[in-house]
Amino acid sequence: MVQNNNTVRYMKLIIFLFCTSFTTIHLYAQETLTVNPKEVDFSYKEDQFYFGLTYNLIGKKPDGLSQSGFSGGFHFGYTKDMPVNKRRNKAIGVGLGLSINSFNQNIQISEDINNNTIFSFINGDNITVTKNKFSTYMFEVPIEYRWRTSTATDYKFWRIYTGFKLGYVFASNSRFEGTPENIRLKRINAINNMQYGLTFGAGYNTWNFYLYYALNPIFNDTALIDGSMIDANAIKIGLMFYIL
Fold this sequence. Notes:
Helix content is 13%, strand content 52%.
């Protein structure tokens, strides 16, 4: 358990440092680059690397479910930009990335002796809560239609990207800290391994609004609370940054 948590922390740190380095280089280049007309690349491509920060919401919540605190997401990856017109301001993007997401809420996740996942609302006078959340770690494949106002020499432009994102959950965990006892799971068996949804991004230059709306539930059909399935889905709202 400790070893697994350390691995996750190291992975977050490495990704953060990697993205920060790329962003610093990219922003510096945007401000200082001078273009020699003889060196203009008219077969240019845009936005190869991306990373984003999101606030994660739970949609289609069952009665009694609520969120508290900050539920965050971190997304990083590489997209192959494939222009489809002569001006190269329209393109298809296909990529591969990582996504780390947490959801703070009021459902306690535990297991019985047969490793079946149990969901129950946190209530009662004998229960105090310091922290309660579950997290997912995903490989993602974004597929986008990309429109932008870029040219071979313009490094600041408007963009609108719409598409579909397919994700595979390769790790998950949950953590309850409080009384009467702490509960930690390093793998949630009731998580949907395959997750997918629609994406929309729009903005100018560095700052871009981003929205993800999941089309399937976070949990599979074994996830029950008070005898009913938990059909809740993920909604992610935040900022996306693109790097050449």
